[in-house]
Amino acid sequence: MANSQSATAGPNEKAPEITTDCRAPANVAHMLSDTVCTKKINAAPSKIFVLGIFAGAYIAFGAALATLVGHDAAAFVGVGLGKFMTGAVFSVGLMLVVIAGSELFTGNNLMLMTVLDRRASLGRMLNKWALVYIANFIGSMLLVVLYYLTDLWKSNDLAVGIAALKIANAKVNLSFIEALARGILCNWLVCLAVYLAFASRNVIGKIFSCFFPIMAFVASGFEHSVANMYFIPQGLFLKGTQVAQASGLDLANLTWGGFILNNLLPVTIGNIIGGSLLVGMGYWYVYVRDTDQ
Q1: What is the mean pLDDT for each group of 10 consecutive residues in the chain (293 residues)?
Q2: Alpha helix (H) ranges present in 7-104?
Q3: Would residue 111 count as lying in a domain?
Q4: Is residue 10 part of a domain?
Q5: 11 within a domain of the structure (yes/no)
Q6: Which pTM was predicted?
Q7: Strand segments (E) across 62-194
Q8: Is 19 within 8 Å of 34 (Cβ atoms)?
């Protein structure tokens, strides 16, 4: 009944708030545009920076776990189910971001809704994006260093480290268009996960909201800029170890320059397109624009 009632709201009118476990899509759009994103843009930079470090670390936790689980999963359950399992465990990263609270660059692409609604300036939004992006990188690098120091990458006769190196090397050998397209598709799903999480009023609903879209993007092989801030630097660290020789890979493109130019740049652009335009602008246009007319 709740679903049928919320469905009566047209695209240009705000849906009535209903006391259920789920908010209507129009309510989520208004909540993001009117309050959530506005507060984020106007929040104290120091707090946003700390929360950004947290988010980078949380996504890295998911990436490290995904590497461990996925390094030999295909040998036991096949390629498809192996990718499903990898994506399933990676989703813990966004669960930590959403439920524990932190600032993730890709999710913050939804801030465009507030700018389009003229509640904040483009300059302030870009400033917050840059601050969170840098903080996410610091958080990711913190996990890269700590995980490297654990020597856990030597597990299973270096197989975990070899898998991590293969992941990093594959990412820096994508073409610009491949990385861009995979970045668009990735953040389309990530921002939908955030959108669904705001629709839910309880923790279990937020968990499932994060699980399915994130599992889908990882299993599909799409590219996430913040996750790659862990995956590729981890490979760069392992490049100087016995893992490199054991892998038998051509690591010519696995450099810091290759990381930035071949992957991070096109993937970040793609993430912005997928999150800001396809989700943020799309739902702002349908549910928020001209609702007072």
Answers
A1: 44 54 89 92 95 98 97 93 96 97 96 93 95 98 98 95 97 98 98 96 94 97 98 96 93 97 98 97 92 55
A2: 25-31, 37-42, 45-70, 73-77, 79-90, 92-95
A3: yes
A4: no
A5: no
A6: 0.91
A7: none
A8: no
